[in-house]
Amino acid sequence: xxxxxxxxxxxxxxxxxxxxxxxxxxxxxxxxxxxxxxxxxxxxxxxxxxxxxxxxxxxxxxxxxxxxxxxxxxxxxxxxxxxxxxxxxxxxxxxxxxxxxxxxxxxxxxxxxxxxxxxxxxxxxxxxxxxxxxxxxxxxxxxxxxxxxxxxxxxxxxxxxxxxxxxxxxxxxxxxxxxxxxxxxxxxxxxxxxxxxxxxxxxxxxxxxxxxxxxxxxxxxxxxxxxxxxxxxxxxxxxxxxxxxxxxxxxxxxxxxxxxxxxxxxxxxxxxxxxxxxxxxxxxxxxxxxxxxxxxxxxxxxxxxxxxxxxxxxxxxxxxxxxxxxxxxxxxxxxxxxxxxxxxxxxxxxxxxxxxxxxxxxxxxxxxxxxxxxxxxxxxxx
Length: 382
Description:
Elements: H1 3-26, E1 40-44, E2 59-63, E3 65-74, E4 82-84, E5 90-93, E6 102-111, E7 116-118, E8 121-124, E9 130-132, E10 134-137, E11 143-144, E12 150-154, H2 161-166, E13 168-172, E14 178-184, E15 187-192, E16 201-206, E17 212-214, E18 217-219, E19 223-229, E20 233-238, E21 243-248, E22 251-257, E23 273-276, E24 279-288, E25 293-303, E26 310-313, E27 331-333, H3 335-344, E28 350-354, H4 373-377
Parallel strand pairs: 9-18, 11-19, 20-28, 26-27
Antiparallel strand pairs: 1-2, 2-5, 3-6, 4-5, 6-7, 6-8, 10-12, 12-15, 13-16, 14-15, 16-19, 17-18, 20-21, 21-22, 23-28, 24-25, 25-26
């Protein structure tokens, strides 16, 4: 083939290829038209879920849309309190649910392109074998002494003490070292390592509702309290001195003539130990069948042990006050001194008894301060 013919052939081929490319480019099909997008509703817990913990988070969300209405209703038709987000794309329950109940979703969502989607679904919460009630002390707004423990008591024994302890929080207005200790399978207390600093504000939260206690038992309700520690007042009860001294904020404010328990009868000793004022009564009726007295009326009584010890008036024993220890274990004061001390005392004030022939075993409620710090920490479940 001559050179001129070859050039003509390549020129023709190039023209054909260009035409094919032009046709191909101009003939591309148009892009697909946008397809409608449907709003997608999701639930937490999921639709049909069973054995749901009633304290777990409950939410409904919508993707590619927003809720125009949404409600969660129990079997009695009562709506659960909830909150819709500002953009309308999520809703959450703002109250805990009940045990052993069925909840149903209802409402409507609208997709971003205007298509309506119904909100439908349901779930069931767990039904415990039993629920266990708890109480907390001190109660809200109390003002208590510097030895006051925080005490949570359960109306039935609990098994999973570690889980319960992890649900307990103590916050203080100043740093305070302290720890929880299980005094029985129905009681857990928190006490500071040393006495509370005066005027500390304390907040306690126990997230117990929905908490598994073990053996099919669950917490009945959350607990909380806020209270204050008052001034720092300590009773120094040195048995051998026949005096009871009151120290307030580091200064001696009272020094009373007293009579303690009979020293030579262990059953009548005022025992050694650090106790707290547990209750105060203007009149206390006392009985002790072992020693032959019944319905004895004493005034200005401040209990510091469930073994039976009080600080109280005993005007009938005036001759012994400041001289002889002859009570049945209580700290006897004159009527005037007992009234003055009674008026000054707070629940939770420490009473430090020393110099006695016997000591109190750590078994009577409240015995928190009869344990060393190491013994106390050993009673923690975690």
